[in-house]
Amino acid sequence: MSVLVYIDQADGHIKKSSFEAASYAAKVAGQTGTTAEAIVLGKVSDDLTSLGRYGISKVHHVADDQLNTMDSKLYTNAIVQAVESTGAEIVVLSHNVNGKAIAPRLSARLKAGMVPGAVSLPDTSAGFVVKKGVFSGKAFANISLQTSKKIISLTPNAFTPVQQEGTAEVVPFNATIVAPAVKVTATNKVKGEVPLSEAELVISGGRGLKGPENWGMIEELAHLLGAATACSRAVADAHWRPHHEHVGQTGGSIAPNLYFAVGISGAIQHLAGVNRSKVIVVINKDPEAPFFKAADYGIVGDAFEVMPKIIDAVKKLKGV
Amino acid sequence: MKILVCISKTPDTTAKIAFTENNTKFATDGVQWIINPYDEWYALVKAIELKEKDPSTVIHLITVGGADAEPIIRKALALGGDEAIRVNTDSSDSFTIASQIAAVAKEGGYDLVFTGKETIDYNGSAIGGMVAELLDLPYVSLATKFELNGTTATINREIEGGEEVAEAGLPLVISCQKGMAEQRIPNMKGIMGARTKPLKVVEPVQVEALTKIVSFELPPAKAGVKLVPADQPEELVRLLHEEAKLF
């Protein structure tokens, strides 16, 4: 019996959210008196022994080219084979784009109760209860898993990975792989930007910025801080910014350490996508903007006057 | 072409979120119910668009819920769709719900099953993947674009920092999000027509729930905003650096 964590990769590199999942899996293993092992699918360029630093004792690696793109059925089959071979009772994944496709399949296949989007370690004082966000960030639910096998998909940026000394043993894993039914024909990635879902710091703009030509200051501040950029629904609908930047109830839901909102009033639907952010900063010229009620820091002022000064102060701080 | 669109009833996006019975039940008093926006704006409208291109397409809607879900499914029928199926059971367990949908889908022989990417109340993103697994079908999640050429589908799917384009044959399960289609408002003809469209009620298949909601809780209240004067923005940068230690 062990805890098995699925390590998600893109272009041969382990995703940050998977290091979080690995560390979480090691903690759960500690709680339940067992060890945490990992499964990695596809060719990778990262050194997998480094997963030992996140508490993983053994890495099962299926280095098959067919697994370099994600087909939820193939991935599920491979992970199920690893579950059977390791005897794992608990499977941990990141609740990222791929985790959202794989975790429910695993749950249905293994008849294993699942917590999609966990935000806490399991409470094992009475059964096995894990907290998750519900009502689009407006509440939490404590979910009891009533099956012997359990699936936990962990909300990105909800759990800070703990690093320690350690080297994981990497062993090849021979999973039976059939031809994928879903063939990836193209990948369109925005180069050189921090993916929004993985970003720790997010700078976001709303209709208050008046037009796409004024996004330079959002991008400059984001660049200085290594932050991702986001926007409100109105901005995405007006095609000022690409749709994948839209955060809110019907766009992406994010939980960065910093959400820095410029010219966004903070309608309840927008808040639903960002209210799990650890610190919210609001710059808005309207003192009645509802966003100030959800904010930690704020400036009531004109973004066009305030933002250049903020950028200067950050430049001074960073010595650039 | 036969499409099954999964429809869920959720509280309105502006509904007040509160709990009763010692924080074990969602307080439904005064709550307006809507079609889950991802199911309505993206899954259902996309299915309607496919029918507009190929009028021989048949669209069935399915909801799993009690009789109180009927106004929602009628509203969905007013937008489009040929008939609806309500599986007469209430559950908060994703596997129970997915098993009901899979049982109906197996009978119906659908080429496509569309779901929203998640519901705005449970935020599970679970139903599509579970239905696909129960039917042993390919599943493409978080789709932002879907085109059909004969029996081959081309799907754009969200990935971290961009999109991936994939091809797959039918039958297929897809979870839909922004980009798939644009929100529509039902017209009078649709609303009148929806009243007479068939709404079949079927009894659930027996399934053991895998999960149970023990309790709900609200996030801790914010301490209140610390306002920095507009003429001292550098003070905000100092606070974020020294107090919040964000960079």
Task: Describe, in plain words, how this protein is organized in 3D.
The complex is a heterodimer of chains A (about 325) and B (about 250). Chain A has about 325 residues and is an alpha/beta fold. Chain A folds into two domains: about 5-170, HUPs (Rossmann fold), CATH 3.40.50; about 195-320, 3-Layer(aba) Sandwich (Rossmann fold), CATH 3.40.50.1220. Chain A has eight helices and 17 strands. Chain A has helices at about 15-30, 70-85, 95-110, 215-225, 235, 270-275, 290-295, 305-320, and strands at about 5, 10, 15, 35-40, 55-60, 90-95, 115-120, 130-135, 140-145, 150-155, 170, 180-190, 200-205, 230, 260, 280-285, 295-300. A seven-stranded parallel beta sheet of chain A has the order 7-10-6-1-4-5-11, with helices on both faces. Chain A has a five-stranded parallel beta sheet with strand order 14-13-15-16-17. In chain A, helix 4 (about 215-225) packs parallel to helix 8 (about 305-320). Chain B is α/β, with parallel strands linked by helices and about 250 residues long. Chain B has a single domain (about 1-215), classed as HUPs (Rossmann fold, 3-Layer(aba) Sandwich). In chain B, about 30% of the residues lie in helices and about 30% in strands. Chain B has six helices and 15 strands. Chain B has helices at about 35-55, 70-80, 95-110, 125-135, 190-195, 235-245; strands spanning about 1-5, 10, 20, 25, 35, 60-65, 85, 110-115, 140-150, 150-160, 160-170, 170-175, 200, 210-215, 225. Chain B starts with a strand and ends with a helix. The model of chain B has no long low-confidence stretch (mean pLDDT about 95). Chains A and B meet through helix 2, helix 3, strand 7, strand 8 and strand 9 of A and helix 1, helix 3, helix 4, strand 9 and strand 10 of B. Strand 9 (about 140-145) of chain A pairs antiparallel with strand 14 of chain B, so a sheet runs across the interface.
